[in-house]
Design goal:
The protein is mainly alpha-helical. The protein has helices at residues 2-18, 20-39, 46-73, 77-80, 84-96, 106-114, 119-123, 125-163, 168-171, 174-185, 190-198, 205-277. It folds into two domains: 2-123, Four Helix Bundle (Hemerythrin (Met), subunit A) (Up-down Bundle), CATH 1.20.120; 129-256, Helix Hairpins (Orthogonal Bundle), CATH 1.10.287.70. Helix 5 crosses helix 6 and helix 8 (125-163) runs antiparallel to helix 12.
Length: 280
């Protein structure tokens, strides 16, 4: 009886944890937590600030109950902590339990409360999919970033050599030149920089056009292409996993139907044998 009651409670926790309304309620609480963090950046009356503090404490307790419910509803407790998102949620929730007092850890506690907004990523599957795709694209993007750095370095060296006497503030050394080129690559008043050098070097516009073409068009599109390629692969893998799960579920259903048919056939055979044994 006790085992049956425990099993029913476990099943109920799983139903609550996976229900749509519970997920929606969690998202609402996360949004409210984000609003409380933003509200604390404004000067507020004492009464409103006290109410926000009570609300913040309630949100912290709710998150603790929610993560505990998810842990208890998980079939494999060890697998729960193998999921990076669960580890992230646990760190955020446990860190939020730190008291906001005037101690050396107050900044850490406030930062962890700010990071509670990121729990939206762990709750919403589509956001998790985007973040996972982005993380998997980082290694390929790193090579593109390295190539961009090389281009920046070469053009900064050339710009420092030729344009230093035009404007030492913008082209005084290679580090400052790279910052100037970053300004050019982001189109932040880059024409002012170009026209200034064109007064001394009329053909210097070629330098800027080539640099912008390489950085703003070629490398940027390469970055976008890498992300899209990884997202396409992840989408294909996700669809394949969904089809595989559907196939396994279908095989399990067919196996269950075959078992039921076999049991029904045995019952029919047993009934037929019993009828034959009865005297006429």
């Amino acid at each position: 009886m006790e085992k049956s009651h425990t099993g029913y409670l476990f099943s109920l926790m799983k139903q609550v944890e996976r229900s749509v309304w519970f997920q929606g309620f969690i998202i609402s609480i996360i949004v409210i937590a984000a609003l409380t963090v933003g509200a604390k950046t404004y000067p507020l009356p004492d009464g409103v600030e006290l109410a926000i503090n009570y609300l913040d404490n309630f949100i912290t307790v709710f998150f603790l109950v929610e993560i505990s419910l998810r842990f208890l509803a998980c079939d494999d407790k060890l697998r729960f902590f193998k999921d990076p998102w669960n580890i992230f949620d646990t760190i955020i929730v446990v860190g939020s339990l730190m008291p906001l007092s005037e101690t050396e850890m107050i900044l850490v506690a406030r930062l962890l409360r700010v990071f509670r907004v990121l729990r939206l990523v762990s709750i919403i599957p589509d956001l998790r999919f985007l973040i996972n795709a982005l993380l998997k694209a980082i290694p390929k993007m790193g090579y593109i970033a390295l190539l961009m750095f090389i281009i920046f370095y070469i053009f900064a060296a050339v710009g420092s050599i030729f344009f230093e006497r035009v404007n030492e503030t913008l082209w005084g050394d290679i580090a400052v030149s790279m910052l100037t080129l970053f300004r050019v690559a982001t189109f932040e008043d880059w024409t002012d920089v170009m026209y200034e050098t064109m007064e001394v070097y009329p053909l210097s516009w070629i330098f800027y056009i080539i640099f912008i073409f390489l950085t703003a068009f070629v490398f940027l599109n390469m970055m976008v292409g890498v992300v899209l390629d990884v997202m396409t692969q992840e989408t294909a893998a996700k669809e394949h996993d969904a089809q595989e799960n559907n196939h396994q579920a279908l095989v399990a259903q067919i196996g269950e139907l075959q078992s039921q048919i076999a049991r029904l056939a045995e019952q029919i055979d047993a009934q037929s044998g019993h009828d034959k044994e009865q005297p006429k």
